[in-house]
Amino acid sequence: MPIHYNGPMGSAPDIAALLQDTLSAAQASVITQATALASAGGLPLYLVGGGVRDLLMLRPLKDLDLVVEGDAGLFADALAGALAGRPSLRSQFGTTALKVGGMNVDIVMARKETYAHPGALPTVTPSSIMDDLQRRDFTIHAIAMRLLPSPAALLDPTGGLPDLDARLVRILHSKSFQDDATRILRAVRYEQRLGFRLEPETERLLQRDVTYLNTISGDRLRRELDLAFHEASAPAFLARAASLGVLQALYPALPGGPVMQERLARLPSLGGPPLPLAYLALLAYGLGPSQRQSLAQRLNAPRAWRKVLEDTPRAEENLAALPTTARPSAVWAALQGLAVEALQAAAVMAASAHAQGLALRYLKDWRQVRPALNGNDLLRLGILQGPAIKEALAGLQNALLDGAVKTVHDQEAFVRQWLKTHSHRS
Ligand code: CTP
Fold first, then answer.
1. What is the pLDDT of residues 253-288, one digit of tens each?
2. Which atom of ligand 1 is nearest to the CA of 135?
3. Is the pLDDT of residue 13 over 80?
4. Which sign, positive or negative, has the C-alpha torsion 221, 226, 231, 237?
5. Which CATH entry fits the domain spanning 168-265: 3.90.180.10, 1.10.110.30, 3.90.1150.10, 2.40.10.10?
6. Element (H, E) at 97
7. Is 333 in contact with 369 (CB distance < 8 Å)?
8. Which residues line ligand 1 (CB under 6 A)?
9. CA–CA dist 261, 272 (Å, integer)
10. Which of 244, 254, 330, 334 has its Cα between 20 and 30 A from that of 177?
């Protein structure tokens, strides 16, 4: 993948061409308006973070992160007005998040950060762009593209450009992971997303400081895991995190490298990418009930996460208990209501090809089966109000699953027949 700059020793990159080639029309228009407003207010303005990284790698940008030296709040309000963006959301750190169409535009006041203790949220004081770059996670995220004052230029005080070229994720100082251990997960996530490597000293410090994950709240850990689960490179993230000991530092009963590799090697049997929380199910596969409970507590898991954690052993057990002769209706009865993510993990990990086949058929086909008739239709066909409706619908559902009925006409005939055989009860 080419990197579109001439290197620190080469001539200056053509920033105008870079912006023109890489930004969408909507992003270009945000930059134009932001530059006009900052220029009118005499404010230095910079594009920073992942956006600059992506620009330099000629990858499409997701979001725009702008840094302003000076009153970022006033600037953000003016930009929100000019872009008719949604009312700005101001955080305690002088950050404003604007939603413009489908795009996020973050506006940050250039600042210095200090950490009272490892894992603490940072103490923030207004400062210069150079200090702002020094507070960041990795050199490749500490490059600023100065938009104002002109001329446009790249500021790279930490050596992000050569690291982009060498495809390295490198922290800025030896206490970085201690200050903010979420960077441990971020380092692995970006390494795998971008196809980079951890710079060797960064890798050594990551492993040295992996226990600092204990200083991070459940909500922050869960947010980082969730981001990783949503990446196309989630399997590679998990493999690498496991082999670095990161997963076991998160929770000791989670798998180490070889076990995780084995589980991930089975993923292709799913025939497509799993849902994000299927990775949680896969991580927690084989944990006992109390371990699941304490993992859920550690991650301050919300309802959806808890359901996946609780349903995974149920999916495993129910699937294993199905006889080889099980009809679709029996599979449906055993698996319905369980979280799809738990079922995906159970399918991946199934002990036999037959059980795996049943789980996959359930996920792909049987899960969606619903009768064409509803309760009102059954009343119209003569079934009396009350439990009979539910029973007849369940019978119809099973008949559909097992292929005994297909068309609406078949289904009506089934109900009429059901009425005859159950007439003494309805
Ligand atoms: N950042 C940091 N330390 C963190 C989180 C974020 O220094 N623990 C800084 C980095 O400079 C990062 C920027 O904040 O580039 C924005 O973070 P984020 O929005 O999470 O990521 P992006 O850089 O926008 O990258 P992407 O959206 O591509 O993941």
1. 999 999 999 999 999 999 999 999 999 999 999 999
2. 7
3. no
4. positive
5. 1.10.110.30
6. strand 95-100
7. no
8. 49-50, 62-63, 65, 136-137, 141, 180, 182-183, 186
9. 18
10. 254
